[in-house]
TrEMBL record:
Small subunit of the glutamine-dependent carbamoyl phosphate synthetase (CPSase). CPSase catalyzes the formation of carbamoyl phosphate from the ammonia moiety of glutamine, carbonate, and phosphate donated by ATP, constituting the first step of 2 biosynthetic pathways, one leading to arginine and/or urea and the other to pyrimidine nucleotides. The small subunit (glutamine amidotransferase) binds and cleaves glutamine to supply the large subunit with the substrate ammonia. InterPro entries: Anth_synth/Amidotransfase (IPR050472), CarbamoylP_synth_ssu (IPR006274), CarbamoylP_synth_ssu_N (IPR002474), CarbP_synth_ssu_N_sf (IPR036480), Class_I_gatase-like (IPR029062), CPSase_GATase1 (IPR035686), GATASE (IPR017926). The gene is carA. Pathway: Amino-acid biosynthesis; L-arginine biosynthesis; carbamoyl phosphate from bicarbonate: step 1/1; Pyrimidine metabolism; UMP biosynthesis via de novo pathway; (S)-dihydroorotate from bicarbonate: step 1/3. It catalyses: hydrogencarbonate + L-glutamine + 2 ATP + H2O = carbamoyl phosphate + L-glutamate + 2 ADP + phosphate + 2 H(+); L-glutamine + H2O = L-glutamate + NH4(+). Pfam families: CPSase_sm_chain (PF00988), GATase (PF00117). This is Carbamoyl phosphate synthase small chain. L-glutamine binds at residues 49, 223, 225, 252, 255, 293, 295-296. HAMAP family: CPSase_S_chain.
Length: 356
C-alpha cells in the first residue's frame, strides 16, 4: 500500500487541490499550464520552453513506461530534449508506481526526485483544466506544509530565455553549409534534425552578435517565456535580414522573426500545449497535426505588407508561422521536430536546407 505524503496545489484565485507526492518533497511555484498530450512525458519535462511552469498532464495515467537513462552523444541527449528536467512541478491524475518498458532505467518519481522537482498525483486534472480554460493560465504553488511556504511566481515578468540559452558558442558537425542557430532554449531534437542535413551547426547564446560570423543560414530556436525580453536578439535578426540569407524560426523563433519584421505578439489565454493541434498551410487545403508548446502568439494584423501568414491554427485561427513575400525568411509556431508528437511537418527542415 502506498503511503505517499499529502501535498497541495494552490492557485492564485484561492482554489486548492489536495493530492499525494510522488516526486521531490520541495515547494515550488510557477505558472500552471496544461498539456493534452497522451504520451512523451520524458521529452515534455525536459523541454526548456516549460521553464517557470507547473505542468498539468490531462491524460489520466502517467508513469507506466518509466524513464530512460541520462546518456549523451557529442553533447546532445540521446533520449531527452535538454540536460535536465525543466518544469517547476508536475500535476497528474493517476501515477503508475510500477513501470515497464525496454528502455526504462528508473521510475518517473525517482527521476523527479533526482532533479528536485515535485510531482502530485490524485488531482482531478479535468476540473483543474476546466478552471485554466475558463480563467486562463494561472499562477500556482505546490506546498507540503503552510500555504505561505513559498510565494507565487509569474515567469512572464522575467527573462526566461536568458536562463534557457547556452552560455558559450558550441559547434556541431562538419557539413558543407554553415548554419548559425540562436539558442533561445533549444530542444535537442531540433539539433538532431538539423544535423541530419549536410550542415555545420554553430549554436550561439540568445544575446550573441552572430553577425560577426560567416554563415549560409540563420536558425532561431524555440524557448520559454515572454519574447519581449529578447530585444537584443530581435536587433541581431534585423541585421541578418539585411544580408538576404535564409532565416528559419521555430516557436519562439517564429515570434522573434515576426518582431524583427515589425509585428507584435500577445499572450494567449491558456496557450497551445499538445500533440494534436491542427494547422493549415496558407493558400491551400493541406492540413497537418502538430506538436506545440507556447503561451504567446503573433498578431496577424500587425504583419507588414512584405509578410504573410504561412500556417494558421484551425482550432482558434491564431498564427502558426510567417513568411516573407520575396526573401527566404520563414518560420513555424509549432514543432516540426516533434519529440514528442507527430512528425508530419519535418519537411520544414528540408525547406530551410533547400534555401541554403
Amino acid at each position: 500500500m502506498q503511503t505517499d505524503k499529502p501535498v497541495r496545489l494552490i492557485l492564485d484565485d484561492g482554489t486548492i487541490f489536495d493530492g499525494r507526492s510522488f516526486g521531490a518533497e520541495t515547494a515550488a511555484a510557477g505558472e500552471v499550464v496544461f498539456s493534452t498530450a497522451m504520451v512523451g512525458y520524458p521529452e515534455s519535462l525536459t523541454d526548456p520552453s516549460y521553464i517557470g511552469q507547473i505542468l498539468t498532464v490531462t491524460f489520466p495515467l502517467v508513469g507506466n513506461y518509466g524513464v530512460p537513462e541520462d546518456s549523451f552523444t557529442n553533447g546532445i541527449s540521446d533520449f531527452f530534449e535538454s540536460e535536465k528536467i525543466q518544469i517547476s512541478g508536475l500535476i497528474i491524475s493517476d501515477y503508475s508506481h510500477e513501470y515497464s518498458h525496454w528502455n526504462a532505467k528508473k521510475s518517473l518519481g525517482e527521476w523527479l526526485k533526482e532533479h528536485n522537482v515535485p510531482g502530485i498525483y490524485g488531482i482531478d486534472t479535468r476540473e483543474l483544466t476546466k478552471i485554466l480554460r475558463e480563467k486562463g493560465s494561472m499562477k500556482g504553488k505546490i506546498v507540503f506544509g503552510d500555504e505561505n511556504e513559498i510565494d507565487f511566481l509569474d515567469p512572464n515578468i522575467e527573462n526566461q530565455v536568458a536562463k534557457a540559452s547556452c552560455k558559450e558558442v558550441i559547434t556541431y558537425g562538419t557539413g558543407a553549409k554553415k548554419v548559425v542557430m540562436v539558442d533561445c532554449g533549444v530542444k535537442h531534437n531540433i539539433i538532431r534534425c538539423l544535423l541530419k542535413r549536410d550542415i555545420t551547426l554553430i549554436r550561439v547564446p540568445w544575446d550573441y552578435d552572430f553577425n560577426q560570423i560567416e554563415f549560409d543560414g540563420l536558425f532561431i530556436s524555440n524557448g520559454p517565456g515572454n519574447p519581449d525580453f529578447c530585444e537584443t536578439t530581435v536587433q541581431n535578426i534585423r541585421k541578418a535580414m539585411e544580408t538576404g540569407k535564409p532565416i528559419c524560426g521555430i516557436c519562439m523563433g517564429n515570434q522573434l522573426l515576426s518582431k524583427a519584421g515589425g509585428a507584435t505578439v500577445y499572450k494567449l489565454k491558456y496557450g497551445h500545449r499538445s500533440h494534436n493541434q491542427p494547422v493549415r498551410l496558407a493558400n491551400s487545403e493541406r492540413c497537418f497535426i502538430t506538436s506545440q508548446n507556447h503561451g504567446f502568439a503573433v498578431s496577424n494584423a500587425s504583419l507588414g505588407e512584405d509578410w504573410e501568414p504561412l500556417f494558421t491554427n484551425l482550432n482558434d485561427g491564431t498564427n502558426e508561422g510567417i513568411r516573407h513575400k520575396t526573401k527566404p525568411f520563414f518560420s513555424a509556431q509549432f514543432h516540426p521536430e516533434a519529440a514528442s508528437g507527430p512528425t508530419d511537418t519535418d519537411f520544414i527542415f528540408d525547406m530551410f536546407f533547400d534555401k541554403l
